[in-house]
Fold this sequence. Notes:
CATH architecture of the largest domain: 3-Layer(aba) Sandwich
Number of helices: 12
CATH superfamily of the largest domain: NAD(P)-binding Rossmann-like Domain
Structural class: alpha/beta
Shape: elongated
Number of strands: 8
Radius of gyration: 21 Å
Strand content: 5-15%
Number of domains: 2
Order of helices and strands: EHEHEHEHEHEEHEHHHHHH
Amino acid sequence: MKNIGIIGVGIIASAVVEGFCTAENDEELHFFLCPRNKEKTAHLKSMFPDQITVCNTNQEAVDSSDVIFVSLLGKHAESALKEMEFKQEQMIISVMSDHPVSSLSEWIKPARKLVRMVPLPLVTTHKGPIVCYPKDEAAASLFAPLGEVIGLKDENELIVVTAITGLMSTYYLMLHTVARSAAEYGLSEEVSMNFTSLFFNALSDKAVTVGIDGAKALAYDEMTPGGLNELALLSNVDNGTYENLKVSFEKIMERMLKK
Length: 259
């Protein structure tokens, strides 16, 4: 059995616990949750009573675990981690975007193994990318049931990937806008949302095989001149949709680089 401590039970940590508890794991897992966020800890305990222990203190969660999953608010991380006593053999996995490996390594001594990861709420469905830095075989093996683990070569890549995740809400609202517009023309809401989601999912499945320039080529090569796709594409180009999307990404990067 592998024991995993969760320090900071927020949206991402809750999704990770749920993902693990519903996945087919190579070994039995048990989770020791810190006492903060009583609503989320109680919810997880009610869903998976045999796999979860809610601890009285952060230190209790640390003392009980082989792997420590850290998901604290940036401004509280340093003081909270320095108050805890870690063991040399424990693996610390940080999902915090605010703190580089150099800082975290000092705060978790004497623990030696530290990995930064970016899991998404999608891990509850065991899909999607999960990036880690530095590349670590043990962390990749542990998280493999939750999605596709991608090792990164340096910490700057982790910053850029994290910036991409900042577009998740933008994407969901795009799906809503398309599906809602179709429903207003008489398509049932259920069919509208199902078709829209499956349609864009299939497009992404194809795009992932062709590379960056290939995705742009698909946009132009697979549309009929004078057809519906050209009409929509030219409208979005004229409206500055893609330039605005680029600006949004640049704003996210500006914030990430200031941290």
